[in-house]
Amino acid sequence: MILISLFLEFFKIGLVGFGGGYAIITLLQKELISLGWITAEEFANIAAISQMTPGPIAVNAATYIGYRIGGFWGSAMATLGVSMPSFILVILVAHFIFKFKESRFVDYSMKGIRPVTVALIASAAIFFAYESFVDLALPMYINPGAFAIFVLSVLASALFKVDTILIILLSGVLGLIIL
Questions:
Q1: Which residue in 28, 146, 155, 157 is deepest, having the highest Cβ count within 10 Å?
Q2: Are 148 and 133 in contact (CB under 8 A)?
Q3: How far apart are CA 10 and CA 19, in angstroms?
Q4: C-alpha distances in Å from residue 109, one per residue of 26, 93, 103
């Protein structure tokens, strides 16, 4: 029964996950925590690891959570569930794209989906900011070490164009040293 639940939950998430990995993070967070499959802190860790490993964030998270809950077959069902809607939608879109590519309805629909995607990404950013900066033992206390790593990472990326992989590695080392 858990295998079917994993497939259906991740299918549902994959079906409404417009905007890719960062937009789907909010959906994953709300669903998986409300089901009691993971805690907010575990989700933050899973999302961070999923972003650092090759492949789509949603697939990486589904694979990990599926394995944790249902072993190998849980992993396979969750990964299949989150991937299947995209596969089906791409086949449908490919079939109809030339027929409706000039449609104002399609154009307006896509323009309506864009702000939702931005909102979902912003929601994920707020979640990660809270989980990263706020010390859960002291709920209104901002962890200065975590905030310093954030500021240094933004500066390294935006001003000095440091490679993303190097930023991730150096941030991990800094975390080991100061956190």
A1: 28
A2: no
A3: 16
A4: 22, 14, 10
Do residues 133 and 36 lie in contact, with contact meaning Cβ atoms separated by under 8 Å?
Answer: no
Identify whether the C-beta of residue 77 lies closer than 8 Å to the C-beta of residue 3. Answer: yes
Mean pLDDT by 10 residues, the chain (179 residues): 95 81 81 91 86 84 93 97 90 79 82 88 87 75 89 95 93 90
- Do residues 147 and 133 lie in contact, with contact meaning Cβ atoms separated by under 8 Å? yes
What is the Cα–Cα distance from 56 to 36, expressed in whole angstroms? Answer: 23
- Cα distances (angstroms) measured from residue 24 to each of 8, 63, 109, 131: 16, 15, 19, 17
Beta bridge partners of 134: 142
Please check whether residue 24 is in contact with residue 17, taking contact to mean a CB–CB distance below 8 angstroms: yes
- Residues 6 or more apart whose Cβ sits within 8 Å of residue 168: 52
CB 82 within 8 A of CB 14: yes
Continuous H helices in 16-103: 21-34, 40-52, 57-100
Residue whose C-alpha is closest to residue 10's, from 61, 45, 67: 61
Tokens of 168: 């991730």
Q: What is the DSSP letter of 162?
A: -
CA distance 100 to 16: 22
Assessment of whether the complete model's pTM goes beyond 0.90: no
Q: What SS3 class is residue 134?
A: strand
